[in-house]
Amino acid sequence: MRFSVFLNARSMAPEEDRALIKDLEGHATRAAELGFDAIFLPDHHFNGYMPIASDSYMFAAYLAAKLPQMYFGFSITSVPLHHPVRFVERINILDQLTDGKLLVGVGSGTTPEEMIGFGVNYQDAGAIADRNLAIAEQLWAKGVEDPAVEIDNGPYKGRVLQRIAPAAYTPRHARLMPVAMKETSARRAAENGWPAFIPAFTPPVIGGTEPLKHVTKHFTAYRTMLEAAGHAPEIVADALSWSTHTYQVVHLAETDEQARTELLEILASYQEAIEREAAFNARAETDGANKKTDRTPNALTEDWIGTWCLYGSPETVIEHLKPYAALGIGNILCGTTTGPLTAERLRYADQTLELLSTRVMPALRDAA
User: Fold this and answer.
1) What angle, rounded to 10 degrees, do the helices at 256-284 and 343-355 form?
2) Is the pTM above the cut of 0.90?
């Protein structure tokens, strides 16, 4: 079982941005020193959620130069917010710089506020994402003498005459990672021999206290399609080794009681930040084209904690993860910096890294 770190902190004011960037650089470096497998980054714009995620590929390239042994992933790239040419170019550059140690999560995005900033209607995001991915495949496959690739997709236009430069390092292109929730997304991952993100809920309910039930359903469907796709055994094994279950908040302490108390402190600050951002999202939802149809539970509810949190003593966390290892989940993605990144929050994050590395990871490395 692999363990990866998800950098998902928040800055609450412009004057906090620089400290957050430097603190996350230090946190990522510490994760590499402690034996974590990968650093994952989100893709967000205009608010305090990971200011550096306005161009996660740039930050990943910076970290890759410092941490050449690490894999880098994106959880997730909001495909409708990227011109397909720039999407493919950035991935190819990073694919080359990391020698193929790249995992590009792809999805249609989460908030109307981010969509309208790029001239995309929220209701159109899914269709634009699907078309952008199809165009990206055309661009990756295009040779210099092939017919031009015509781009006409929502706000994105263009005509590519020659090729994408640089070429990809990975055969065809770097691995993409769809979310194995919809059948079409799971099949895209399976048929291409790619890993997938395995959710712990089933819409329209985004939360609950039985996450393993949902993980089992989504993972089993994905794995069945992957194994039926006719890939070589090493491709199947690699895809499964990176099949990823994400916890937005991972917090460990010496005792369960301490971990629960500190977790609630973390979540209280996180929920305050969410409510601040919700006010701006409400301004974006001015018409039917930009109305969200789902709502996430309050982070202090047991439904949210049950779906998105992994916490407790090292022994409790090991017992929690054993069924996931037995199921075959390859990678646990740990949100260690969730919420506003104060000095105390960073101390909790480093505490979690240490306990995961020294006491949890050794017990689960060979469990799968």
Assistant:
1) 130
2) yes
